[in-house]
Amino acid sequence: MSRDTQLKERWEKLVDILSNQFSQGEDLDLDAIIYLIGVQELGKVHREYKKDEKLNLMHIAICRLLEPYGFYEFEFFDEDGWPHYKVKEELPPLKAGEQSVLMKEAIVNYFLERELID
Length: 118
Known about the structure:
The chain has one domain (3-113). The chain is mainly alpha-helical. It has helices spanning 3-22, 30-42, 51-66, 96-113, and strands at 72-77, 83-87.
């Protein structure tokens, strides 16, 4: 099975699992899944977030997802428990499709680590 086919199958399985759990079966998009990962990483799942906090949650998720690729490194938790990352290496210029594939691969790897999918 090619790497692209395996990624596609794992991504579809992951979207199905998360959509059934968090959106009554309506497919979650990439941004919604990134947001969920941000909430997971923060660890404060049962609360409402303001718009700026939602953006910060997505930033946390992106940093965490791209950390294994060498782009970010965890630094510390602030007094409110929010994780902070530093940039280790700038992301190369990517086309929209390439960004999407990179993020999907990173998300799939994140959930493989957590054994939600195999």
